Amino acid sequence: MKYSFVIPVFNRPDEVDELLDSLTRQSLSTFEVVVVEDGSQVPCHDVCARYVGKLDLHYFSKPNSGPGQSRNYGVERARGEYVIILDSDVVVPPGYLQAVDDELQRESCEAFGGPDRAADSFTPTQKAISYSMTSFFTTGGIRGGKKKLDKFYPRSFNMGIRRDLYQQLGGFSKMRFGEDIDFSIRIFKAGLHCRLFPDAWVYHKRRTDFRKFWRQVFNSGIARINLYKKYPDSLKLVHLLPMVFTLGVVFLALLFVAGLLSVLFSLARSERDMGLYMMTFALVPLILYSLLILADSARQSHSLKIGMLSVRAAFTQLMGYGCGFLQAWWRRCVRGQDEFAAYEKNFYK
Prior knowledge:
α2 links the parallel β2 and β3. This protein has helices at residues 13-23, 45-49, 67-76, 96-106, 124-134, 136-139, 163-168, 179-189, 210-230, 237-265, 269-301, 304-334; strands at 3-9, 32-38, 56-62, 82-86, 90-91, 111-113, 116-117, 158-162, 194-196, 202-204. It contains twelve helices and ten strands. The mean pLDDT is 91. The strands form two sheets. A seven-stranded mixed beta sheet has the order 3-2-1-4-8-6-9. The chain is α/β, with parallel strands linked by helices. Pfam families: Glycos_transf_2.
């Protein structure tokens, strides 16, 4: 057997149902599916039982240990030459596995990954979040599946690797967040050939509201510093941009407040004029950036509502990541504390 899908699950039976249904529609149908229930309070056993006979499906249940260790558990029980790691909140198009197979036939490699996009069925909020995570104007396009990248670091929502090499590398670490980037770094450090498969994309729901999205990106910012402490050469200029954006927004907000106070309480006209200038200087870059996001997202989605939500998603993503990054930098690099993460107990609530 050439391919094994490994899917860790935590309290998401409805999403697993959608994912398994999409796997029944693959044009290339020779594969197995390994579902690992990670100590869920709402298990998906009954959902998986409905696909017996439709898929070569193997269901396992274990105590909660986090997604990384659950993937390792599944890979240990997989039989395929390649294991394909998917998050439970994705849906794969019918040609997904064929695209993977075509790429491997064209040019073999030890590891690979693919991009993601939003489905028409997603809510406007999910589409806005998807835009913010893939747009050039928010992430520089580093997660949007661009071929020009010198290195592509697969993410756990859509990642494949030869099973024997996965086991040689020890699989995912015990990091609660950033464990997929950690694994990708170790793939490159082992000298393995890793490629982007641009046509092997998935629909990725990500978070369903902005509160959950903030928690996700906040932990991503923390994870970046945790990774830096393990691999100092992994921190690139692009990883600093959300932090710079966050500090810039805070500075402009303080400047606006200072200008407003000057307008309201200064007696001298020159001071009031200076206050107006400060307020204008603070608002213009924020308004221009917001209009850029609004226009680009609305153009892509053909929806003004999604464009407006994308403005909120962009600020949530950049400032959530930036705040997590700054907190982790202070605690780990300045105060010398150990690795940590936030929102661990209620991350999905």
